[in-house]
Amino acid sequence: MGLRLSHKLLLWVTCFMIIGIGAVIFYSVFHNSKLIANRGIDEAEFSAAMAFEALYTSMSLGGDREGNRSVVKRLAALSGMEEIRIIHGRPIDMQFGIDEDEMAQDDFDRTALDGVKVKNIERDGWKRTARFVKPVFAKEICKKCHIVETGEVLGAISIKIPLQKYDNELVTSAMHLIMIGAAILGATIIFSIIFIMRVIVKPMRRFQRTAQAIGEGDRSVQVDGHSALEINALADEFNRMAGKLQGFSKELEGKVQERTKELAGEIEERKRAEETIRHMAYHDPLTELPNRLLLADRLNQILARGRWHGKEAAVIYLDFDGFKVVNDTLGHPAGDEILKEMAERLEKSLRSGDTVARQGGDEFIILLQDVGKIDNVTKVVKKIFSALDSSFTIDGREITMTASLGISIYPDDGEDVETLLKNADIAMYQAKAEGRNNYKFFTPAMNEKAFKRLELERRLRRAVEREEFLLYYQPEVDIKTGEVIGMEALLRWQNPELGIISPSEFIPVAEDTGLIIPIGEWVLHAACRQNKAWQSMGLKPLVIAVNISMRQFKQTNFLGNIMKVLDETGLSPEFLELELTESIIMEDAESVIGILNKLKAIGVRLAIDDFGTGYSSLEYLKRMPIDKIKIAQSFVRSITTDENDMALATTIIRIGHSMKMSVIAEGVETIEQFKLLRSLHCDMIQGYLIARPAPEAGIELFLGKELSLDISCY
After folding, report:
1. Residue among 412, 414, 425, 284 at smallest CA distance from 355
2. Which of 575, 667, 657, 658 is nearest to 613 (CA)?
3. In order of start, what are the domains of the chain with their CATH numbers?
4. What are the tens digits of pLDDT across the range 312-363?
5. Strand 402-410 vs strand 397-399: parallel, antiparallel, or unpaired?
6. Are 617 and 586 in contact (CB under 8 A)?
7. What is the dihedral of CA 409, 413, 414, 420, to 10 degrees?
8. Phi and psi at residue 687, in whole multiples of 5°?
9. Helices (H) and strands (E) in the chain, counts
């Protein structure tokens, strides 16, 4: 450190000295050059004045050309002049003529012939010459020899005097000054070096050695005093600092070690946090499988590899069948456990280079690279179905799940991520439409079907705006008396272009898009209004049954909507029956019980539709204010031919009666079904055997003839 500081100080001193001495030398040379130059010019001008006087006298007194030349030669030899020229003017030219070398040569000569004296310093490289040009005026005596007037310019005298000796004198003076400056500069540098070494470098080296010793752990060293007061004071302060450092050293070392351990822990924790964040960004939090972001990245890599090597790849879109029912009945925690176990099973079913990712909800995406033959894809699909063969055990319950799979192949079914996923999704929905628990490879025809669904959605939205819906009604009959005691309102869509569209076609679309809410509200208004109209016609009051969707029931203002409809239509609450599915009543059962109790409190009747097809809990069922349960048509259809269906129907009737609920069987189409249900003590029936669903006009004719049916023949 001391050496570096000394170098800087020496450099600064040297620079300042060079600048100062250089400035002095420059000024001295410049000043001397002016003095010497002026002296040379003055002496040259003095010599020229003497020559002018002699020549002027010769010319003005009428000296001839040869005489003047003789005078010029003698003057040049005596005074060391470089050139003396006599320039004859116009009067002399007119009389005698002139030689060519005596003509005016430049502007200075011509200026002199105009009667003006000229002085100039000329340069030829480093050689300087003083030139003087002076006019010669005619005197009275000149008239004797020339035809001139007194005062007229006879000619001019041009004299050049070299200044070489003065330039040499200037160079010699400058060299002396430079030598003196260099000597002073050298002496100053030597003195500065000695001063810096003694006053700065040596003390700084001692400081350096002491600081180095302290840095190596020796806190006992001291800096020796110095004659310089500043350095001595610095040494004292340095020694006091070293003493304090010695006292703080151990404490500081302890704190540093402690903080180092803390920092190491913090760094490790931060690394773990960053790794966790990175993992969360690209993985599903529930199953730990890759999420959509990582799925897209891996699929892009697989497609790039396929393009480069000409390999095929496959995208499999998996969706559980009826998974919503599991969530609705057993709760979301149970559904999450199934998803996690399914993720593990899928990973075990795949090859090492393949990927399984969770798309969302109960949907999984499987990526197969380098599939080669289609048979290889089929083998993987069969492994996936084998993984689903084993039931899932959740809270001691055995749950069997099925899935529908859609498959798209690169590059036949798409060459980018979006297209392959979309086509695999379309194929999966086709598998569901064909019975579920199945798989389908994508075909262009499926894409056309997807477009048809989009077109159906567009038409359905327009139908909601234009109210293109109408209600059909089907009677509900007391199985003992044959009395019509109620009607079920059934929705139909009457499209101006397509005609009557079955609910099985558009209700799923309405559920998916949320259009079921405005459609359901319209059905509720129309059914209540029609029932009130029948009562106003004098017909016997009947209970009108309306199906309620999950989305409708989950609305926060559902109870208020029911009361509003009853108020607007004027229908008494006891003539309205709401049909709910098992999935609705088991979704957050405690909350549902509260809503059902409020509906029951205002007088609305409650029924469970398609009882036995879901996962109803008898524990919750006995706490719900249900008035009626419906045996699903799927059980009634084969009740006379299938012992299991008959056993299920018998059990449902007994459960309903034991809980003081009435039981109705829907889909009754044959006398045999009717007789068997009556023997099982079912309370009511509904189906084609009694009447087909009909619009309000047909039902009014039916009700107008008789309000009870003769069932004695049955």
Report:
1. 284
2. 667
3. 2-169 (3.30.450.20), 222-282 (no CATH), 292-442 (3.30.70.270), 456-705 (3.20.20.450)
4. 889 999 998 878 777 767 788 888 999 999 889 988 888 778 889 988 888 9
5. unpaired
6. yes
7. -60
8. 160, -175
9. 24, 20
